[in-house]
Amino acid sequence: MVDLTPHSRQDARILVAVTGASGSIYAERLVDILRTRVERVYLLFSDAGLQVVRHELKPRAEGFSLIRAASGDLDPADRQVIRLLDNNDLFAPVASGSSAPTAMVVLPTSMGTLGRICHGISSNLLERSADVCLKQKRPLVLCPRETPLSAIHLKNMLQLAEYGASIVPAMPAFYQHPKSIEDLVDFMVGRVLEVLDLPHGLYPPWNSRMR
User: Fold this and answer.
1) Does residue 2 form part of some domain?
2) How far apart are CA 129 and CA 59, in angstroms?
3) Closest alpha carbon to 50 in 84, 76, 75
4) Which of 19, 24, 27, 106 could make an SS bond with 113 (beta carbons 3.0 to 4.6 A apart)?
5) How far, in Å, CA of 33 to CA of 50, rounded?
6) Facing residues of 17 across strands?
7) What is each CA distance from 169 to 21, 67, 78, 135, 142, in whole angstroms?
8) pLDDT in tens, 126-175
9) How many Å apart are CA 164 and CA 139, to the nearest integer?
10) Does any domain span residue 5?
11) Does residue 34 lie within any of the structural domains?
C-alpha cells in the first residue's frame, strides 16, 4: 500500500493517464470516484487512448463520462476538480519535479507505453510525468491490460517494479460473486484505490465475515 503523506487524501493531486490498451471503462470509473475524493484530478490521454475511448465507450447521461471529457465537455462542478491536459504540452505543471502530482495512475497501460516508461523515454507529457514520479519517488501505478504476455512485457514490468512502480494488472477476480460488468470494473478500480491508500466500499474484502 502506498503512503500519500505528506499530502492528505483531501489535498491529493492524482494524475490519471489513459492509453491505447483496452479497458477505458476502468479509467472512467476511477475518475468518477476520485473527483469526489481528492483536490485535483489531472486527466491525460494518449492519441491511441483517445481512439480506444471513442471505440469502447458511449456518453453517459448521468455521472462522469470519459468520452465527453475526452472531447473537453465537463460539467461545471467537475471543472473545479478535473484538469484536462494536452499530451503534447510539456509545460504542464506535472512535467516538473517541483510540481509533481501526489500520485499517477496509468489505466489502462498499453505495453508500448509501459516499455517507454521503463526505459526513460519522455517524448510526451504522459511519459515525462511517469518519469517525474519515478525520479521524485511519487507513487506510479501501472495497470497493464494485455494477454498473453511476452518475455519483453514481463521483463519491463519487473524492471518497473524494481524502480518503484506498482504493477496492478487489469485482472478482475470472481470471489466477490460479481453480477455485472460494473461489479468487475469496481473490483479493478478498488484495487487501484487500495494501492493509493484510499478506502472504498466497491466490494467486500475477502472472507470479511471472519475478520
Assistant:
1) no
2) 28
3) 84
4) 19
5) 20
6) 44, 106
7) 12, 23, 28, 22, 8
8) 999 999 999 999 999 999 999 999 999 999 999 999 999 999 999 999 99
9) 8
10) no
11) yes
Three-class DSSP category at 152: helix
How big is the chain by its Cα radius of gyration, in Å? 16
Residue 68 belongs to domain spanning: 13-210
Is position 8 within any domain?
no
CA–CA separation, 123 vs 110, rounded Å? 16
Q: Where does residue 10 rank: exposed (0-12), middle (13-18), buried (19+ CB within 10 A)?
A: exposed
Q: Grid coordinates 505495453 are at which residue?
A: 111
| pTM (predicted TM-score) | 0.92
* The three three-digit cell numbers of residue 12, written as one number: 491529493
Give tens-digit pLDDT for 7-56: 445 689 999 999 999 999 999 999 999 999 999 999 999 999 999 999 99
**3-state DSSP call for residue 124?**
coil
Length of the chain: 211
C-alpha cell recorded at residue 37: 475524493
CA–CA gap between residue 129 and residue 137 (Å, rounded): 12
CATH code for position 200: 3.40.50.1950
Which cell numbers hold the place of 70?
475526452
Helices (H) and strands (E) in the chain, counts: 8, 6
How far are the Cα atoms of 8, 33, 42, 70 from residue 197, in angstroms, in the given order? 11, 14, 18, 27
The total number of structural domains in the chain stands at 1
